[in-house]
Design a protein that fits this description.
With 144 residues, the protein is of the alpha+beta class. The protein has one domain: Secreted effector protein pipB2 fold (2-Layer Sandwich). Helix content is 40%, strand content 33%. It is built from five helices and eight strands; from the N terminus they run ββααββαββββαα. The longest helix is centred in the middle third of the chain and has 17 residues.
Length: 144
């Protein structure tokens, strides 16, 4: 199994929907997403990083700024072989990415520290970017 980065979005206090299901039928969930944004004042959820032989990293926060900061804004800094610190949006703390040769160290508040293959991590981030950029992707429902 390669590194995977995905998200799930909270629709209610005890109901969340995964990225794959959401992207596969965005129209079906449009009303639920808009209601969740009204209920919570934001679109909340979890970014999930999975890799072989390490615990899952689950970053719970507001989805839109978290995806933007981890998947878009962090890339140029990491490519320059510098560390990235992403502050959580909804509460105190941070998520940190440190390039270490062919690995990326993921660490921060309230998450386990893990090392994952840099290229696999980058490829997975690119797939999240493509989904977020797609006019029919998960964020499209928020702006229609």
């Amino acid at each position: 199994m390669a590194v995977s980065v995905s998200f799930c979005m909270n629709l209610t206090w005890d109901t969340a929907i995964g990225e794959d299901e959401l992207v596969s039928d965005i129209e079906r969930f449009r009303a639920d997403i808009l209601a969740a944004a009204d209920r919570f004042g934001a679109l909340n959820g979890t970014i999930i990083v999975r890799a072989p032989n390490v615990p899952d990293v689950r970053v719970e926060d507001e989805i839109e700024p978290t995806i933007q900061n981890i998947c878009f804004l962090a890339i140029p800094t990491l490519l320059a072989k510098q560390h990235v610190v992403v502050r959580y949006f909804s509460y105190p703390g941070y998520f940190r990415l440190d390039p270490e040769g062919l690995k990326v160290l993921i660490s921060g508040d309230n998450i386990p520290s893990v090392r994952v293959d840099y290229q696999e991590w980058y490829n997975s981030i690119e797939s999240v970017e493509r989904g977020a950029d797609d006019r029919n992707g998960p964020h499209a429902a928020c702006y229609r």
